[in-house]
Amino acid sequence: MKQGNWIRGFLLSLALVAGAVGAQAQDKPINGKTEILWFGQAGFRIKTPGGKIIVIDPWLSAGPKTPQPFKSDLSAVGNIDLLLVTHAHVDHLGDAPALAKMYSTVLYGPADMVTPLITLGLIPSNLGYRFNKSGTIKPLPGIKVTAVKAEHSSLLVYKNATTGKDESHAAGEPVGYIIELENGFKIWHMGDTGLFSDMKFISEHYKPDLVMMPIGGNFTMGPEDAAFAARNWINPKMVMPMHYNSNPMTKGTLAEFTDAMKGSVIKVVPITEGQTLEF
After folding, report:
1. Alpha-carbon dihedral sign for residues 55, 56, 61, 64
2. What is the pLDDT of residues 51-78, one digit of tens each?
3. Is residue 73 a contact partner of residue 209, using CB atoms and an 8 Å limit?
4. Cα–Cα distance between 14 and 148 in angstroms, integer?
5. What is the C-alpha separation between 42 and 92, in angstroms, rounded?
6. What is the pTM of this model?
């Protein structure tokens, strides 16, 4: 073999070995823990096994149960790798536009909610990403998010800077999210929702490990309806009650939900505003 051909062959072999090693490293499963912090209402900060930060429905500065320092200082949230909003009601959209601009982080949400956020000037066009139910995105390496149905409504209310008056704008339909993390752990954040029988289909199709479920009533399922859905349609390994204890109109309590879940093998995972749990 000529010297030039030998060198080229040797370099090619090195490249193939390096590529194989790199592929093995990339395919190596991530076995770290998932950390979940509850801001209150439907707001969460999730630290993934790969160290990424996901924030959902951050109603912080105006949230009556938001713990300090998040209530008084949005920068306390820290860097955000993925920002998700389920719908435009103030207790879900909350401080998401401000956080998107603060960290130059894209706000992901239902298409017809993101559009008015952009056209009304609440976020720049490069910080809004539109998708819809059954749409799946892969915004970060190893992380997949699918929008799913939520039985609720959506309305955007904002203060017009010119007139000083509040305005109401249609904001499409609400969604929930199936969030699959780097290690395969799946979270179903249901957003705001009432009962609908396709909860059974969503659970069977996506197989969530942990379901974040509203229990407050009035605007969403109350404790008994939430327990019915969990026990009869969803059957997850774990359910984390949310969307209660922040509004006098949502009277459902953790005690009522826990009582309605008695006898079930599903693990109820209570969390307190400001608390962080590991999974």
Report:
1. negative
2. 999 999 999 999 999 999 999 999 999 9
3. no
4. 46
5. 7
6. 0.89
- Token pair for residue 250? 């949502």
CATH of 30-278, one of 3.60.15.10, 3.10.620.30, 3.30.930.10, 3.40.50.920: 3.60.15.10
Amino acid identity, position 232? N
What is the 3-class SS of 129-188, one letter each residue?
EEECCCCEEEEECCEEEEEEECCCCCEEEEECCCCCCEEEEECCCCEEEEEECCCCCEEE
Cα 106 to Cα 24, 60, 119, 264, distances in angstroms: 31, 18, 16, 39
pLDDT at residue 20 is higher than 70: no
- For 20, the 3-state DSSP assignment is helix
Q: What percent of the chain is helix, strand and coil (3-state, nearest 5)?
A: 30, 25, 45
